[in-house]
Amino acid sequence: xxxxxxxxxxxxxxxxxxxxxxxxxxxxxxxxxxxxxxxxxxxxxxxxxxxxxxxxxxxxxxxxxxxxxxxxxxxxxxxxxxxxxxxxxxxxxxxxxxxxxxxxxxxxxxxxxxxxxxxxxxxxxxxxxxxxxxxxxxxxxxxxxxxxxxxxxxxxxxxxxxxxxxxxxxxxxxxxxxxxxxxxxxxxxxxxxxxxxxxxxxxxxxxxxxxxxxxxxxxxxxxxxxxxxxxxxxxxxxxxxxxxxxxxxxxxxxxxxxxxxxxxxxxxxxxxxxxxxxxxxxxxxxxxxxxxxxxxxxxxxxxxxxxxxxxxxxxxxxxxxxxxxxxxxxxxxxxxxxxxxxxxxxxxxxxxxx
Length: 354
Ligand code: XIL
What we know:
single chain; 354 residues; alpha/beta; 16% strand; binds (3S,4R)-3-hydroxy-2-oxopiperidin-4-yl beta-D-xylopyranoside; 8-stranded parallel beta barrel
């Protein structure tokens, strides 16, 4: 981050704070057409997530294809949607999303194969037959991955394996039947399914909980030592504006030290905080947090930069404003407002990448 970039950003933050942008053009945002595509200024893949229902909204598709080079399926590439009770795979929507991505010259990042949060009746019925379970486990991974060869340039093979307190692995059906090695087994099966895609371990709160980050890194080192084909590490970066200064930077640096691909996989920067902001402007803090993400990511070696993904397009698309358990006050965690206009965070990105 050069000094003039930082000064530019400080200037932008001040403008935003003083509302000068609002005064200049009557509103704080630039209209979709007037805002140059983000993808033109970023030196690595920039992604957004969405669901099939979003594809009925032309503003959403226009905005996504204008600014991003990668699509991530928010729900329909997960076991909960794909796996049927008889073990068959429902890939219709994820394949349609792949066609959308391909049609617009975008890649996909596959999300996600093995997750503690979703296991399905089909696997639960096999829980007492470990051999059959393992065969079905490998078959599931292969069955989901193979149709996306050449479009998914990376996969979250195992998602959220570490307990938030950093004491060890989460309990889940996979671990119960296959043991701790369910993770290595998933990576082996994934490599068999697609020899060319990057295979990621993905988790969240790595910036908030150093103990969890340490345990995540220990798991990565164990996987590498035992020959598992782990080739990427991902930090979700679901953060709020009160995230400790430097925590995201330390996380990206720690992950980068493994020498693998690094992926910032699910960015949203919530204005909702557990503790009061002590008079700080939340939207200015969002710019600080975004600058820290991009600055730290910039420090990685070019060959490590798998890219960054925002967990949604417009604020109204965010799971933070949609999922029942999360809808508290209206949140504004993403780059574009509900009308699809570029917010200061989007404008700050073009300054940071300039
Ligand atoms: C979330 C989706 O955004 C929601 O729509 C869905 O109801 C639940 O899952 N970490 C992950 C993502 O890896 O898959 C989650 O996505 C958000 C947390």
